[in-house]
Amino acid sequence: MPLDAIPAPVRKPIPRGQLLINGLWRDARDGATMVTTDPTTEAEITTVARASAADAEAAIAAAYDAFETGPWSRMRHEDRAKILFRMADLLDDRVDDFAIREAMDMGMPYRDFCDVIMPHCSGLFRFFAGQAMAHMDGAYRTSYESNIRILTRREPLGVVGAITPWNFPLALTCSKIAPALAAGNVVIHKPASDTPLTALALAQVALDAGVPEGVYNLITGPGGVIGDALVKSPRVDKIAFTGSTSVGMNLIRNGADTVKHQTMELGGKSPNIIFADANMEAALQAAFWGIFWNKGEVCVAGSRILIERSIYDEFVERFSALARDAVLGDPLDPKTQLGPIATKSEYEKILGYVEEGKRTARLTAGGGAPKIGGKGLFIEATVFADASNDLRISQEEIFGPVVPLIPFEDEEDAIRLANATTYGLASGIQTSDLGRALRLADRIKAGTVWLNTWHKYHPNAPFGGYKMSGYGREQGAEALENYTQYKTVWANLG
Ligand code: NAP
Questions:
Q1: What integer pLDDT is reported at residue 6 of this predicted model?
Q2: Does 299 participate in catalysis according to the annotation?
Q3: Residues in the chain with pLDDT < 70?
Q4: Of 21, 62, 219, 476, whose CB is crowded by the most CB atoms within 10 A?
């Protein structure tokens, strides 16, 4: 069906949000609230509870008791899996509500949410429900005593604090909650203060699916207060964090006193290497969506495009033309490719980088911040050619629809530039030479390498960073390593 013929969904009133503690929705103890705003209309959407450290303590106490007393942590794997499968089904049933919330709250195109994000989220619950039923225990013999058996068990960690950012609010929550619950842990979710709306709906899904009280808790409130309470509490066993490298470093330091288990999904400045022998059309598409999907507010955005010198001029011209044609608009409109920037502070930060780019490189597309219907935090798809790799726009995470284009001479030069960053989250190589693609994939220091593509994800594919992009893996069976611990039982059979 042509996009013009698809009726656009409409904004709707969203009820005010509360905290979920021990299976009950309630206001913050001191009654405080905070506002969440629609970046398209710049109007208030609703208010949510603004928790204090006392509320965080109440959630920690509820979660701790739920873990210690069961039934979740002791439930048969099959019964836990049934509840997780139910959560997956409820997510799919409620996709329209979730998609409208994410569009209003962070400007994510409704269509992308329905086509890509929700299938991934419900897929995560189904994948980890399956993993919950997988055999996780082992039995071994020693080589020297025939009466001795070694039994290994994988047990849940306990209370998991999940702290998530605003750029993919639902997806990055599900990638923590699904494996945490599947392994028998209990969770306390602290979503980003700017985008709490899908977190509220997900917590309701958990209740409706039959997750027992105290097993799933939701605390909305400032990261400096709630995140701090979670990471410093001796009764929280693990922090699963996605966010900026600076806050991640802070959490690592603050978790040291309680030897906290932590996984860190941090920032990125991912190189997309385009060789002259690449299929030009496909490479242009991979580069366009690599940086401009979700308006560049993507940790794995292809935010440094490295182009072989012999095709550099042609690529710059054609890529810039694509960027100039990018459709900005209301994320609820099916024709929209780039919605508004999620928050005013990010919008201003990105525009600062645009000005910096104008001084240090050659602007070939975008650079403007148009209002649509007189409103909205929109920034055009912006391209800077003739950038060097050591500019601020080439080294710092802009986290918006802005990209430097950098020429390279040969394979060695490409790999040198690609790895010349403190980050190591993702990367891509566009070439028709499979041998070269695999050779370079070996040498790139990044947790994900996309060959002749970009933005591919699947619940069974491990995801995470190298270097200052973090440690630990989400998704895939590997994620369960980060939500379980091994116990070794030595049995003397006599
Ligand atoms: P952020 O500022 O680090 O915030 C992330 C979360 O941490 C929010 O819930 C925030 O709460 C909380 N927080 C803030 N200060 C805290 C503190 N002192 N202690 C504990 N928690 C604290 O990151 P963001 O701006 O929301 O997200 C963008 C960043 O996330 C980018 O750097 C991006 O690359 C990264 N990211 C990484 C991945 C990945 O998988 N590697 C994926 C997506 C995004 P408040 O909202 O209340 O401040």
A1: 64
A2: yes
A3: 1-7, 135
A4: 219
Cβ of 423 less than 6 Å from ligand 1: no
Evaluate: CB of 459 within 6 angstroms of ligand 1.
Answer: no
Beta-strand runs (E) in 367-469: 382-385, 402-408, 423-424, 426-430, 448-451, 466-467
CB under 8 Å to 46, separation ≥6 — which residues? 13, 14, 15, 16, 17, 35, 36, 197
Domains in the chain: ranges and CATH:
3-266+469-490 (3.40.605.10), 271-458 (3.40.309.10)
How many whole angstroms from 96 Cα to the centroid of ligand 1? 26
The predicted structure's pLDDT at residue 4: 63
The pLDDT value given to residue 494: 87
From ligand 1's centre to the CA of 223, what distance in Å? 8
> H or E element: which one contains 311?
none
Burial group, residue 258, by CB count within 10 angstroms (0-12, 13-18, 19+): middle
Q: What is the structure's pLDDT at 260?
A: 98
| pTM of the entire predicted model | 0.97
- The closest residue, in CA terms, to atom 8 on ligand 1 is 192
- Which pLDDT belongs to residue 5? 65
Ligand 1 atom nearest to 245, measured from its CA: 32
pLDDT score, position 137: 87
How far is CA 490 from its chain centroid? 40
192 lines ligand 1 (CB under 6 A): yes
- 68 in catalytic set: no
